């Protein structure tokens, strides 16, 4: 069993200096979340650390601890999620496994204490009090609007899915064993205090979750207490464990995570097939047959020279043409991300106002929630499938299923699982779409299309999906 509470080891000099600087600056300039833009939201999240410094010195490199002495921020953090919310949430039909995990770290291993079926608040409270179990609440942004607002803005900022989990741990207990994750992690301390220990990564920028044994991870590189209003960031692969000290009734923190399967390697796996397909149309080398019986051989090392030559040729083509298409990653992101959080202004997601005409001036809206891709025609089953332009958006995505994946069985059974929303156009519309995306205001009659009818049809289609407004 990992040691709980007790005296803490010395924090590294670098971390001490950083924390001291952060405390001083935070005391001088307290700030809450700013929702004016994705950039301002992220800036307020890591304040007082500046964005440029964060990405230069910390992102994917090392942990960042921001300890704040700000009662207003502490109160705001507590409003995001607190232990008392569980009673009401349990009345909304939560299920073990899908929505909530009950667990505890026992002898360096995670012990899951889930029951079957729906979560009972009385049983949950009993396990929390008597078994010293941690409550892990999956994707609370489905229920808590403020977290929805934060994560939706962060998805716009990063261009990557952003999930979250809340962990509520009683005093003198630890929910999870030492482990590392495959995501970039931002931790906000909401209630109580948590004793954290971070260790040097055993796998830098890990691509999968893994539990590590105490005898393999060595001594902590960082050790500290998080209090309400504090922020902790660490890169994927950082080994960590945390417990609630004795004398603290409980600890509640939310872990906001992003950049899962979002590396250059993932992008290449997505984009290279399209590059090979397009190049094979023009270069006979890629249409030449592989050697006879190559697939029957145990060792195909003799073919590596040829493959290396082809890869160099593809790299030269890419550098000269600068054309690289990523469709599956784009679609996965737009299909599974959060819809805009508009509060009382939800009418913006319903077509309204003036219809776009040929002499209208139009402006793109919800730019961060729409993408353009070029793909083979999905509605044409003929042997020769023409390329079409697709505009996908997340305006109609369901917040209730965000980041739930295959676990959301109820939604799948009801036919309400996530689907792609968008429009399909001939390839000739691509320049006009780029024109709308790259300009603040565009006159419909000046769109780069041949006929006035095409110009009006494009504008009307985008207006119907709430992607443009008439000025």
UniProtKB/TrEMBL annotation:
<dbReference type="InterPro" id="IPR003347">
    <property type="entry name" value="JmjC_dom"/>
</dbReference>
<dbReference type="InterPro" id="IPR046799">
    <property type="entry name" value="ROXA-like_wH"/>
</dbReference>
<keyword id="KW-0408">Iron</keyword>
<keyword id="KW-0597">Phosphoprotein</keyword>
<keyword id="KW-0690">Ribosome biogenesis</keyword>
<comment type="function">
    <text>Oxygenase that can act as both a histone lysine demethylase and a ribosomal histidine hydroxylase. Is involved in the demethylation of trimethylated 'Lys-9' on histone H3 (H3K9me3), leading to an increase in ribosomal RNA expression. Also catalyzes the hydroxylation of 60S ribosomal protein L27a on 'His-39'. May play an important role in cell growth and survival. May be involved in ribosome biogenesis, most likely during the assembly process of pre-ribosomal particles.</text>
</comment>
<keyword id="KW-0560">Oxidoreductase</keyword>
<dbReference type="Pfam" id="PF08007">
    <property type="entry name" value="JmjC_2"/>
</dbReference>
<feature type="domain" description="JmjC">
    <location>
        <begin position="139"/>
        <end position="271"/>
    </location>
</feature>
<keyword id="KW-0539">Nucleus</keyword>
<dbReference type="Pfam" id="PF20514">
    <property type="entry name" value="WHD_ROXA"/>
</dbReference>
<keyword id="KW-0804">Transcription</keyword>
<keyword id="KW-0479">Metal-binding</keyword>
<keyword id="KW-0223">Dioxygenase</keyword>
<comment type="similarity">
    <text>Belongs to the ROX family. MINA53 subfamily.</text>
</comment>
<dbReference type="InterPro" id="IPR039994">
    <property type="entry name" value="NO66-like"/>
</dbReference>
<keyword id="KW-0805">Transcription regulation</keyword>
<protein>
    <recommendedName>
        <fullName>Bifunctional lysine-specific demethylase and histidyl-hydroxylase</fullName>
        <ecNumber>1.14.11.-</ecNumber>
    </recommendedName>
</protein>
